[in-house]
Amino acid sequence: MNIREFIDSLTPEQIEEGNKRQLEENRKVYEEFKAAYKKGICSLCTQPLDFFEESNPCFHWFLKPKGIKKKHFEKYLVQPIGFFQFDSYIRWIANLEVPLKNINDLKDEMNPAKITEYTVRYKNIEWSINIGKTDRQGHSNSKNADFPHFHLQMTVDGYVFLKFNDFHIPLSDQDVFMFRLVEEASDKVLWKNTYGAGMSILEDEEFLEEVDSLMKRTDDWDNAPFHTSTLIQMPEGETMSEETLENLFNESKETGTPVRHLIKRYYPQASIVTELRPGNSVPEISSRNKRK
Ligand SMILES: [Zn+2]
Ligand SMILES: [Zn+2]
Q: Ligand 1 centre and the CA of 63: distance in Å?
C-alpha cells in the first residue's frame, strides 16, 4: 500500500484518536523538557546542559557545552539523529527563552526550491536547517552523500561553528516516511509543532486574529517580535475628535493595549486594517545558496 492509500483508508475516528494520542504524548514530553530546562538539565540524557561526555552524544551538544569542539560532532553526525526530534528540541528551547521571535520559519522568506529552510536562535547561538530536494533523495553522484540527509549550520556569537557543508546528517527511516507523508498527502497531513511555533504563525490565517488579540504595545521597538501598522478609516463625512484620540493614546500608553484595539470602543463604525510583520529582532534565514 502506498502512503496516499494508507492515509485515505483511515476513518475520521481513527484520525481523531491518533491526533489525540499524539498531542497528549507531545504534551508529556514537552512538560518534562520544560521542567528539566528550568533546572539547567537536559531531559533526554539527564546531564547538565553545559556539560558533555564524549561517549554520550545528545541534542544538548548543540547548545555548545563547555569544551565541545567540531571534532566531537564528526562521530556523532554520521548516524541519523532524528530530524523531527531535533527540530522540536531547538524550537522548544528557543521558545523557552523568548516565544516566537527566535524562530524564522516564514515561508515567504524561504527559497521556494527547497523542501525547507529556516533559522532558530537561542541566546548567542543560531541553527539554520537546509533541506533541498536532492538532499532528501541523496546526491546520486556523490560518494559520501548518496543517502537522504539534511544540512545544518550553527553559529555562535555570529561566527560559524558548523558549516552547512561540514556534514550530511542522515535522515532516519522515520524522517523519510514523515517527509513523504507531508509531501504525498499534503491535504491531510500538516507538519506542525505545538510548542515550537515560529514567525510562520503570521502566515496561518487561523491564528492571525488570536495573535493580534494577544498583542501589547511596547516602546522597545528593537526587541518586539512583531511590527504592526494600522490604517483606520471613518465612514465618509465623519471624523474623530482630537480630544478622544488624545485620551485613547494615553490609555494605550498606560495599559499597553494597542490603540487599534481601543478604537473599536469609541468608534465602532471605523474600518480598521492592520498589517502584522516580523519585528527587527527576528533572525534572518541563513541560506545555503546565496540568492540575489
Ligand atoms: Zn542531553
Ligand atoms: Zn546535501
A: 10
